[in-house]
Amino acid sequence: MSTGKHISAHSAYRKGLWNVRVWPILINILIASTLVYAIVAGVFPIEIALIVQAAVLLLSFIVALRQRNKWRMWMVNHSENPKTSLELARASFLRNEGLDRIAFWGKNKRLEFQETFDARMQELRAEHLEAAASKYEKFPTINVYHKFSGLVWMFLFELLVVGGVVYLFLHQEDNTIKIILSVLMALSLGGIWYTLKTIWKRNTTVLEISKHGIRIQHTYYGWLELEHIDVVRGDTLEFQKNGGRLQTLTFKNLSLSADYLDELILFYRSKSSETV
Fold it and tell me: At what angle do helices 23-40 and 46-78 cross, to 10 degrees?
């Protein structure tokens, strides 16, 4: 069962990044700088300084190893989504899985972590299904598309710029300034054209999800066709057809957040299994 206050998956990941990687590096840099200063000032001979630095490196390495497992146990109880936190960590400071073999983590601790992780994910799955039922039950199909809010504001800003340049051009008698304003007007119109072109390109459905399957960009997959589909690291959709290769789609600025997308896929896949 979860305990303590829950924080975002990315905040939990950043805490681990600082404890496992950033702080040990900063401490080693600080001590190395101090030792260099001490050598230059004649306080320490270089041999003693090298021994001290080697001892600090070894100690910080041991502490970092212990922090790997300490963070895992803390994270699984405090992250809103332990799965996302763990995926981010495995792509960063937990990338070297070989270190886990020497990380002073006994069998009982590993089993405790796995049981707690599984229990938390079971909790989240139940919560997501319950929340999704109230949000998506009445929608036979959900379309996920690119958000346009940033581009729309850019377009409006560019229109204001063009309007201001045109006003100055019409009320300006100096020919040199008129030439400069004409160049600015041409550049502004070019910017408007590029923004409109980008909006048009983004005016497509990225994902279409229903209880029967999912359309990813232009390809449709029934749920039973997919051996694996999951949202990982909070920004990537992984999917694999039965017997096919693993494919990925990285998404940003979509109309649905990664957590909602994960929730939505879980909900419709469960609906699909109910009808089989």
Answer: 170
E-strand stretches of 151-258: 205-210, 213-216, 219-222, 226-232, 236-241, 247-250
> Is pTM, for the whole model, over 0.85?
no
Distance CA 146, CA 265 (A): 18
- Average pLDDT along the chain, 276 residues, taken 10 residues at a time: 70 92 92 89 85 91 88 90 87 80 70 86 77 68 71 75 81 78 82 74 74 84 87 82 86 73 78 54
Q: Which of 89, 69, 84, 79 is CA-nearest to residue 5?
A: 79
Record the tokens describing residue 129, joined without a space. 């299904």
Helix (H) / strand (E) element for 143: namely strand 141-145
- Number of Cβ within a 10 Å radius of residue 175: 8
